[in-house]
Amino acid sequence: MAISIYPITGLGEIGEGVRLGEAIAGALARNNLTVLKGDIIVVTSKAVSKAEGRLVRLDGVKPSPKAVKLARRLNKDPRIVELILKESRRVLRVERGIIITRTKHGIVCANSGVDQSNVPEGYAALLPKDPDRSAEKIAEQIEARTGVKPAVIITDTYGRPWRRGQVQFAIGVYGLNPILDYRGKPDTYGRVLKVTEIAVADELASAAELVMGKTKMCPAALIRGYGYEVGFVGAKYLIRPLKEDLFK
Amino acid sequence: MAISIYPITGLGEIGEGVRLGEAIAGALARNNLTVLKGDIIVVTSKAVSKAEGRLVRLDGVKPSPKAVKLARRLNKDPRIVELILKESRRVLRVERGIIITRTKHGIVCANSGVDQSNVPEGYAALLPKDPDRSAEKIAEQIEARTGVKPAVIITDTYGRPWRRGQVQFAIGVYGLNPILDYRGKPDTYGRVLKVTEIAVADELASAAELVMGKTKMCPAALIRGYGYEVGFVGAKYLIRPLKEDLFK
Predict the structure, then answer these.
(1) Domains of chain A
(2) Which A residues, 196 through 215, put their C-beta within 8 Å of a C-beta on chain B?
(3) Which of A66, A196, B7, B18 fits a disulfide with A182 by CB distance 3.0 to 4.6 angstroms?
């Protein structure tokens, strides 16, 4: 069966307090799309951050001496560095203007996900506090409006250590199993697969980016036809446990 | 515009010497699919390796003393370790039964991409020698059969250092620009984006995996409706230059 990915356009600017699931249900209707059982809704973390009031006015940020020092070294705004440090649990690398951190969620990424693209001048966006819970709320709001509860994925754009360019990762997941576990299943020769676990939530996030883009004012997509496994462990399950980390 | 991803089934077992582009064109016809201008064909590296005779009979592999020693430490088949070392340019990490290497192509991955899943007992598959050239040949063969030259992506399944599970990466690309460069373009607030380059070939590879799966005998997919930028730099452009590597 084929998979289809639809952009959800016409959401407009997301203000603080917007109920994102309701806004998406409305935009879907205007796009002549109906949510069907088994559909997946993908939303960027930037949209969620805006709706949840996670935009910070830089004028109100007082950088610590540590942030000031690091900012000078990296030629960055010390208020941004302050936010990056505050959102982090640990700093892993500092180089070429980038601070690689492990965030309070446990995600390893550049600049703790603190980002100024697609936010108003003088503001920075922090990641949602609990993206798995945000995904669940969006699913509930869509169900309240349409009678169908979709799976929901919240995404963010991250680099990879040995690959050029960035891809979308799933940082919040509701309703689907983020990892498809093939271990113990036979391959086409009957040999039992030993180590194959596929991070399908990350693959779905990347697939959705293909219709969302960066400059097109389209922070959401609908994926239809992917037969996912129902699951409720959330995107936090995608974080590799520290003891398995070969690249600390 | 929506994107559609179709599995290309019925390719059957790929033997050495099979002209993969022709086989795909045949399978598409049997699936009632016509290649249209702008379509992307995605093929697993395993299928390409089989067609190009990159299966190695383990009985014929003589492990070096170095491979024997490493194999003992990791509890692996010394002949497999010999192949991993032979395919590598450099060993980055050795831990928990996994050898992380930089391959001769420059790709950083587990076990140099040497793999025994979905290959006959007693054999191991090596990655294609020149996956960008393999992708080009597949495109040419499809054009010869159908009159339309699609973009082609060859994929392999890789882990990521801080994420559980694996996703598909593009290791061979023909006809499309693997990176979409947003640098210098305005965001929705007119602010110029500074660092956003999206690895669309990797996102397309991940999207295709959603219909291909691991155990379903479906090593190819067709992606329709993604308006790619034409480009010929190949998947090698996705490899981050060594001087930019923060995690050597």
Answers:
(1) 4-54+127-243 (3.30.1330.100), 56-124 (3.90.1660.10)
(2) 196-200, 202-204, 206-207, 209-211, 214-215
(3) A196
